[in-house]
Amino acid sequence: xxENEIGTIVIEECIALHRELGPGLLESVYEIVLAHALEQRxxxxxxxxxxxxxxxxxxxxxxxxxxxxxxxKVILELKSVEQxxxxxxxxxxxxxxxxxxxxxxxxxxxxALMKDGITRIVNxxxx
Length: 127
What we know:
This protein is of the alpha+beta class. The chain has one domain (3-122): Trna Endonuclease, Chain: A, domain 1, CATH 3.40.1350. It is 37% helix and 32% strand. Helix 1 (3-21) packs across helix 2 (27-40). The radius of gyration is 14 Å and the shape is globular.
């Protein structure tokens, strides 16, 4: 399955989840429920995955934790805040670069409308 096909399913499930549960719950609640919903759609979802990084010959086994990785291709970073920042977007960009993944989403479940909380971030993805 191509990254864009995965992304379409992710967006559909995020909007449905947000409509049903509403904004402002803990990120961990959205993470668990979203992972389950995506698995029900036939996707492989890994939660809280430590990602190793290397820097100048040093290896850090736990450089960062990915909230969700879907089909080993798409990184999802979940937030439940009033508003995301440039730092949040840069965080996802860095995750994509370090993993070699081409598509990521910053998903803010704290927004009144979920469509306003979806930021699509690419790293060399061909449309």
